[in-house]
Amino acid sequence: MAEGRILATVAGEAITEADVEEMLASMGQNAAVYDNPKGRAVILEQLINRKLILLDAKRNLFERDAAFKEELARVKDELLYNYAIQKAVAGTRVTDDEVKSFYEEHKSDLVSQETIDVSHILVEDEDRCADIKKEIESGSITFEKAAAKYSTCPSREAGGSLGEAARGQFVPEFEEAAFSAEPGTLVGPVKTQFGYHIIRVNSKNAAAEMKFDDVKEQIRVSVLQDKQQKAYQSKVRQLMIMYPVDKF
To answer: Which residues of the chain have a pLDDT value below 70?
Structure first.
């Protein structure tokens, strides 16, 4: 098998394709950066270096150092603590009925944010901004063409479109003007720290109750975490009876 293919040896100890795959898997989202011939070569080099350091540490009997033993005991306790917590909450389950019940009880709180689909044109001068707005309103140029021609924002490449956004994603002056505007109307000049804007709201989506299918997995995770926390607290209370705690 390819994963068993030996890529290098260090003092006779093999480093295989499987070792590289294991390290890639441990990288999470960063794995994509290294999942190529050059990246795998870097990982192999790291694995070789790791074996060299470990071999030298064992040769020098670092495991017998008092400082290492203290560190090992600390790490062991931390691992044992985490493992014990996993055991304490291992039986925790969330049923489909519990998820549905949570949704029905909290439906009024599960509301999507109000959003707008918005475009803008950004220039440095207020009078220039007003002139461009008049030019668009007269019909002599479309908003998209005006954005491509005049705007200093990179969004000009998309006809000024900033896409769909919720509150909190723009500077206050822009947000207030945009969320107050009626779809299709031009607003501006609006001054912000970046310059002067002509704003057009293309569409609005009002806040609305989220559908069950859209949030059920988020609810499942939330309910599970809550049940696990309760299981943990229950375990701690039991242990306080077995092992009395005195606070000073």
So the answer is: 1-3
